[in-house]
Amino acid sequence: MGEGRYIQIPGSGILELPPLLVHAAPSAEEARVQEVVDVAAGMIEEEEMIPFSVGGDDAAREFEQRKFDLALHLADRYFSLVSHWLWGDSVLEWVRQCEITFDGNAVLRPLLHPDVWPHAGRSSFVALLVEKNVPTHGVGLEKAVGLRLTFRQPPPIECFSDQFLFYLNSSVAGSAYQTWSHLGQEHPALLPPERFHFQVHELN
Predict the structure, then answer these.
(1) Which of 123, 136, 125 lies closest to 186 in space, CA to CA?
(2) Residue 15: its H or E element
(3) Tell me, what DSSP letter sits at residue 6?
(4) Which of 102, 113, 180, 196 has the fewest CB atoms in 10 Å of its CB?
(5) What mean pLDDT is predicted for residues 174-189?
(6) The overall pTM is greater than 0.90
(7) Residue 80 phi, psi (nearest 5)
C-alpha cells in the first residue's frame, strides 16, 4: 500500500467496524456465458484480430477454432473485470458505513478531519483490509476499487475494446486508485490493524 504512518488512537481497546458485505459475481449461467462469448466473437471479427487465410475447409475450421478460443479468453477477462468491480463496489459501500461509525464515536470522530484523510479518498480503510488479510479469492483490492471509481456500473462487454480487456484495465484501475488515494497528501495515514475488528460476509 506504499509508505504511510499509523494514526494514534486513544485507549487500547478493540474498536468494532461494520461488516464488509461482499457482493459476489453472479453465477456463470450457461446462457449468460454464451451471450458474452458470442459478443466477444463478433468483436474479434470486427477488429480483424485473427487474419483469415484462404485454404479450404481445414483453414476455415482452424480460423473458427482460433476465434472461439480467443472469444473464450476475452469473456474470461470480462467476467474477471466484473468480479473486481463488484468487490470495489462492496468496499466503497463499507467505507461509507465506516465513516458513519467513526462519526458516531467520540474517540474516532476527530480522525475524519481532512488533514488525516482527504475527503474524497478514505484509502486508509482499503489499506486496513489489506493489512487484515481479508480473503479476496484473487481479487486485487486496489484494482477493484479503481474500477469502481472509474465505472458507476459494470459496462457490458460491448463497451470495451480488446486492448482494454487484455492490457489496459489493470493500469487504468491502478491509476484511478493511486490518484484517489493520494488526494490532498502524499502518503495517506494508516489505521492500526490491531485496534479494529470487523466481519466479512460474502453474499450470493
Answers:
(1) 123
(2) strand 15-16
(3) B
(4) 113
(5) 79
(6) no
(7) -65, -40
Handedness of CA 5, 179, 155, 167 (dihedral sign): negative
Q: In 131-144, which positions are buried (b, 16+ CB within 10 angstroms) versus exposed (e)?
A: beeeebeebbbbbb
Under a CB-based contact definition with an 8 Å cutoff, are residues 154 and 82 in contact? yes
* Rg of the chain, C-alpha, whole Å: 21
Nearest to 46 by CA among 157, 136, 184: 157
Question: By CB neighbour count within 10 A (0-12 exposed, 13-18 middle, 19+ buried), where does 195 fall?
Answer: middle
Residue 74, Cβ density class (10 Å: 0-12 exposed, 13-18 middle, ≥19 buried): buried
Rounding to the nearest 10 degrees, give the CA dihedral for residues 143, 201, 22, 142: -10
CA–CA separation, 127 and 132 (whole Å): 9
Give me the residue label for grid cell 480503510: 125
Whose cell is 484462404? That residue is 54
Asked if residues 74 and 46 have their Cβ atoms less than 8 Å apart, the reply is no
By percentage, how much of the chain surpasses pLDDT 90? 50
